[in-house]
């Protein structure tokens, strides 16, 4: 889901992925999200490719999809975009029963999470100051 908030000249695109992490808890996804918050798009992709965590691949796909949607639908430049907001929220816990000996069962709990990523385009003033 893409939300556009045009306040002035800044373009911001938000994408929300619900129940994306089928077997990833909030804490596992949070340590990956903390590393990419506030970074540029290219730097984020490099970090996510090299991280050894299981949660990095779904987040990589989400960031890649968000920037592709933003550039196609909103005309946002990929080189100038950065992650302004990234957060992880708890979702439902999927419960299953595993059969055990003597007719008993053992519960399996699979935590899921919601991931929200907001992209912004760097302003011209910010780009000019970073070159100095």
UniProtKB/TrEMBL annotation:
Keyword Plastid assigned to the entry: answer is yes
Q: Which UniProt keywords apply?
A: Plastid, Ribonucleoprotein, Ribosomal protein, RNA-binding, rRNA-binding
Q: Which GO terms describe its biological process?
A: translation
GO MF: rRNA binding; structural constituent of ribosome
- Record carries keyword Ribonucleoprotein: yes
Q: Which Gene3D superfamilies match?
A: Ribosomal protein L22/L17 (3.90.470.10)
Q: Its GO CC terms? A: large ribosomal subunit; plastid
User: Where is this protein found?
Assistant: Plastid
Q: Assembly and interactions? A: Part of the 50S ribosomal subunit.
| UniProt similarity note | Belongs to the universal ribosomal protein uL22 family.
Q: What is this protein called?
A: Large ribosomal subunit protein uL22c
The organism's lineage? Eukaryota, Viridiplantae, Streptophyta, Embryophyta, Tracheophyta
């Amino acid at each position: 889901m893409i939300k556009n908030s045009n306040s002035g000249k800044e373009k911001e695109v938000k994408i929300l992925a619900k129940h994306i992490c089928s077997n990833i808890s909030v804490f596992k996804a949070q340590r990956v999200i903390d590393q990419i918050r506030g970074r540029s798009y290219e730097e984020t992709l490099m970090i996510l490719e090299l991280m050894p965590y299981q949660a990095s691949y779904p987040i990589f796909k989400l960031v890649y999809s968000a920037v592709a949607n933003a550039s196609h639908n909103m005309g946002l430049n990929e080189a100038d975009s950065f992650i302004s907001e990234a957060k992880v929220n708890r979702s439902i816990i999927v419960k299953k029963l595993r059969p055990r000996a003597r007719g008993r069962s053992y519960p399996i709990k699979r935590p899921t999470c919601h991931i929200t990523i907001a992209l912004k385009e760097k302003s011209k003033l910010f780009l000019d100051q970073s070159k100095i």
